[in-house]
Amino acid sequence: MAEKIKVRDRILNVATDLFYRQGYNQTGINQIIAEADIAIGSLYNHFPSKGDLLVAYLEKQEEEWFAAFEHFSKGANTPREKIFRFIDFRIEQQQVSAFCGCPFIKIVAELGQDDDKIHKLVEAHKDKQRVMLQSWFKQLDYEGIDKKLLADNLFLMVEGATISTTISRNTQALESVKKFLRKLL
Amino acid sequence: MAEKIKVRDRILNVATDLFYRQGYNQTGINQIIAEADIAIGSLYNHFPSKGDLLVAYLEKQEEEWFAAFEHFSKGANTPREKIFRFIDFRIEQQQVSAFCGCPFIKIVAELGQDDDKIHKLVEAHKDKQRVMLQSWFKQLDYEGIDKKLLADNLFLMVEGATISTTISRNTQALESVKKFLRKLL
DNA sequence: GTCTATAAGGCGATAGAC
DNA sequence: GTCTATCGCCTTATAGAC
């Protein structure tokens, strides 16, 4: 029991990888069970439907995002350092994923506005990031433009740069945001 | 011949609407021919495959984007006015589409990086918008931050705000960009 | 938990008659 | 251009035996 990963986790790990890289609609149940090396009965034992697997996938991404960022920004002590770590974190995310983009933005683009549960999950995740940025800017010793406005628009820049990064397949856009921010702060 | 829309255009119009609103993968051939009220033979007579229809869809979006913007920004004479019209245009686009997002971003999110032809079409479209912004900033009478850097990052803000707009289902993010820009320029 | 079999339907695409 | 029929494949999901 100690050395092997539980079936549920194996399913979720494989689904996570495939949903993120190939897309949700382009990933079939058969591919998931084949790559996870489990029986189809086991899948439906743990997840009643493919939609439930999608929800579990996004909840896992949500948890892991903040855990990974906390680890990534461990050394940052000042608000200014934290803000720059935020950008660097998203640069790293895109580099290790080979510019696959943001899983939350991707799923919204794929499913549209119909699925309310998914939509609200994404909205909550993005709001949490934005509020986090706002709190750092609030602590910042800076006498310039309205801090909340600056925080909100930096967030939008990073979101746009993430998209741009997946289109151009390089980190140029995210580096440009860093450069811009260095001129402001 | 004068009063009726040609079959090819009827197919493309229906496909455009469905690909944009429902997504490419979630739109089937059968739905297209049903809503366009044409025979399946006619579709494959005009478009050899669904993929060819997708290319035609994006090329049409590309053409129409710049034509529509030219009309929208007709009254703008100064570079500053043109820049603000660019944001207002994208606000209007989201309002009339009920926050469906950007068709180019959506298709990249859906298909990933595999399809090279589609990817390059999107890249070219976004570059064209960015270069357009750069040229207005260049003409701008403004002594602040590096103009090219500012243009690039405004573009990223608008891209991010467009995404944010489809997630929150309101224009708040795009309005925030306008507010931010008014403080800068 | 494993396996195989299969239901029920949608998919893109083709063929042939009119 | 229209129509219907069909191919081969894939999809999600279920059932039953071990």
- What is the share of helical residues of chain A? over 70%
Oligomer: homodimer
Q: Could you name the CATH topology of the largest domain in chain A?
A: Tetracycline Repressor, domain 2
Uncertain segments of chain A are: none
Class from helix and strand fractions of chain A = mainly alpha
What is the number of independent domains of chain A? 2
The rounded distance between the terminal residues' Cα atoms of chain A is 52 Å
Name the CATH architecture of the largest domain in chain A: Orthogonal Bundle
The total beta strand count of chain A reads 0
| CATH homolog superfamily of the largest domain in chain A | Tetracycline Repressor, domain 2
Provide a brief overview of the structure:
The structure is a homodimer of 185-residue chains. Chain A is mostly helical and 185 residues long.
Characterise the protein shown here:
Chain A folds into two domains: 47 residues, Homeodomain-like (Arc Repressor Mutant, subunit A), CATH 1.10.10; 129 residues, Tetracycline Repressor, domain 2 (Orthogonal Bundle), CATH 1.10.357. Chain A starts with 6 loop residues before the first helix and ends with a helix. The first copy, chain A, has nine helices and no strands. In chain A, helix 5 runs antiparallel to helix 7 and helix 7 packs across helix 8. With 185 residues, chain A is mainly alpha-helical. Chain A binds a DNA duplex (18 and 18 nucleotides) through helix 3.
